Amino acid sequence: MLDLNVSTHRRGFLGSVAATAAAFGLGSVVPQRLVAEAPAGSSLDDPQLDAWLKKIKGKHKQVYDVPEFNGGVGFVWSRVFFMSNAETGTPESDTSVVVILRHGGLPFAMNDAMWAKYKLGEVFKVNDPATNAPSVHNFFYKAPPGTWPIPGMGIDELMASGALFGACNMAIKFYSGIVGKQMNLKPEDIANDWRANLLPTVQVVPSGVWAVNRVQELGCTYCFAG
Fold first, then answer.
1. Contact 44, 7 (CB under 8 A)
2. What is the DSSP-derived secondary structure letter of residue 90?
3. Could you give the CA distance from residue 82 to residue 60 in angstroms, rounded to a whole number?
């Protein structure tokens, strides 16, 4: 039995479909009955998500909003935040970094197997800097030593420093639909596969914008990195 991390009862799912379509200007292709059935709001009861949010701690807290790859600046700036705080007297243990991977930033929440299987480099138009061709692996995770000009900016290294990563569930639903159509596969099967193959410690969040809002309510300052 798969743990989808986020409860998706039928009415909640319909609401997410309608909201996703609206966000991407696709309202005309969503049956009006689905829009009518979509609830005005939804409730969330997810201990795993609550536990993830409670890891935000310390004196200095920052969230990086990553809706696009944008050269990986969200990862670079995350390391710079840790480094510059350490240089000014605040250790990593008293510093929180949260990275929200949504929209075009989503594939960096997934492992190499998903990049290869679903051709995520082509889907999200992300080239491997080593080949300048659509990437078939998550090159910001476990990169060889010396790859980056700033040490420690790899996703695995940021995680080791305590950075929290969230993956947008709305983006998972939306892009699995696009990939499903291209590959003649069921979107829900793709979405489940993606959730099951997230990088270690990555937390599925109801939506990227939801997470950006919640972590700011917990004291994180906002930085757009996409």
1. yes
2. -
3. 10
Question: What are the structure tokens assigned to 164, written together?
Answer: 């929290």
Helix, strand or coil, per DSSP, at residue 71 = helix
Q: What is the pLDDT of residue 6?
A: 40
The helix/strand/coil state of 223 is strand
Whether the Cβ atoms of residue 64 and residue 78 lie closer than 8 Å to each other: yes
Question: Rounded CA gap, 119 and 116, in Å?
Answer: 5
First to last CA, the chain: 35
- pLDDT for 144 equals 86
Divide the 226 residues of the chain into consecutive groups of 10 and give the mean pLDDT of each group. 38 44 43 36 71 96 98 97 97 96 98 98 96 97 88 96 98 98 98 98 98 98 96
Sole residue written with tokens 């080593």: 130
Q: Tell me how crowded residue 46 is: count the other CB atoms within 10 A of its CB.
A: 16
- Residue among 106, 221, 118 at smallest CA distance from 165: 106
Q: How far is CA 29 from the centre of its chain?
A: 26
3-class DSSP state for residue 67?
A: coil
The amino acid occupying position 35 is: V
Average pLDDT, the chain: 86
Class (C level, CATH) for 44-224: alpha beta
What per-residue confidence (pLDDT) applies to 15? 47
* Amino acid 145: pLDDT: 83
Strand ranges (DSSP E) for 67-202?
A: 95-101, 164-168
For residue 84, what pLDDT is reported? Answer: 97
Report residue 65 as tokens: 């909003």
